[in-house]
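# nightly structure sweep
# worker-07 picked up a monomer target from the shared queue
# config: single-sequence mode, recycle default, output format = structure tokens
# input follows
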Amino acid sequence: MIFGNDKNKGIKLDGAKPVIVDLTDGKHSVDDLMVHDEFEPSPVHATILAHMADDPDYPSPLGVFRQISKPTYDEGVEAQIENVTKLKGKGDIEKVLFNGNTWEVN
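# output follows
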């Protein structure tokens, strides 16, 4: 991650802590810097990015921090209904309502 008016600063990780480094001092290069991948399965880098704005010395990151591909809620419900229908067949509401275990209220 490179930033600064002259693109002369970068963010590298020291364990799980981001550290600002100067790319012009000869001690650090672009190869030392953190590389962001929004498709990374682990939420660690996204969390680090989200909290960089807490420190005024760090740049405020913008963009997609983490992108997860998974079904929406309604897709999940529809998949559950399809699976149960395959296992048990299509339901019959009349069978359920008039299954003999009924009572009358007068």
